[in-house]
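Reviewer comment 2.1 asked that we show a complete input and output for one of the modelled complexes. We chose the benzoic acid case, as it is the one discussed in the main text.
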Amino acid sequence: MALDTSALNRQRFNLDHLDDVWLFGYGSLIYKVDFPYLEQRVAYIEGWSRRFWQGSHDHRGTPEAPGRVVTLVEAPGETCLGVAYRVSPRTFEYLDHREKNGYLRFFVPMWFSEQESGEGLVYIASPDNAAFLGPAPLDDMAAQIARSHGPSGPNADYLFKLASALTELGAQDEHVAELARQVEDILLA
Ligand code: BEZ
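Response of the prediction step:
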């Protein structure tokens, strides 16, 4: 799959007949909310885990030295906590460009509580995209994040902002928390 997925996302679903759509955010969409929304709710999805397995050539790294950012990987029995935004379909014109590095939009069920659910879109960078890096030992991933920089700033800032936002939400995400501890140690050494 091509690296720039914005054109693919435009063709994927016709949202024109909808007044609004739920969007599930689990990464930078939690702390960088630079788009209009109609409503915001804490939500979770089932069967997915957040992992720093996607390469970033455009925001937190460069084509020569990609950083690492989050994607979702299938994880039966796990839940992933994030923030859901009810947005106008027009918002995806902007978000598809912002999140164009290998992410495709998928419809998933999302839960606002044990009793209340909805369907919405989520951006996922699947293993078949050109920027996918996949798993690596945690200390290798921490070293890569600690040294990577891109047009949007240091890769470490992305990780630290996400880790703090998840703590504020009350999410327990050991993958993100442990990476943040290791990167902080590297940068303080
Ligand atoms: C998110 O925060 O949901 C998100 C993560 C990666 C790419 C696009 C969106």
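The CA atoms of residues 1 and 129 lie 5 Å apart. We note this here for comparison with the apo prediction described in Section 3.2.
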